[in-house]
Fold this protein.
Amino acid sequence: MCNTYRECGYTSNNPYTYVNGVSSNDSLVYNDVRRTFYTPDGIVLLISLGGGGGTLEDGTPNPMYESQDIFIDINGSDRPNQYGKDFFRAVITKKGIMPSGYDLSAEEVTTSCSKSGGGSYCLSKLMRDGWKIKDDYPW
């Protein structure tokens, strides 16, 4: 586990950028809201925690739990630290862990995963493309 961004090898707590080059405000380590750790092969996982979780009184899943994020930096602190290149976002859903944007239209996913978009849904684009980087991927 990383209690500080330096423990995970980063020089900043906000090292990520969107596809369009704009800096992201996603924090690597954020007190009791996010748990960050790295695997032996260098992947860094940021798992958002938060209120909720479990089930409501009627037995249905707590909606706060459904919207929690998991960020995946496939090469740790090595650059480029950019959405869609080495940094991806997933969400916890009733179906399990799914790429962010899995439930959106192909057009919405493609717009996000473009050089003018933010890149939050690039993992969903990769999933829809059979986990392959096809010719329409933005780089």
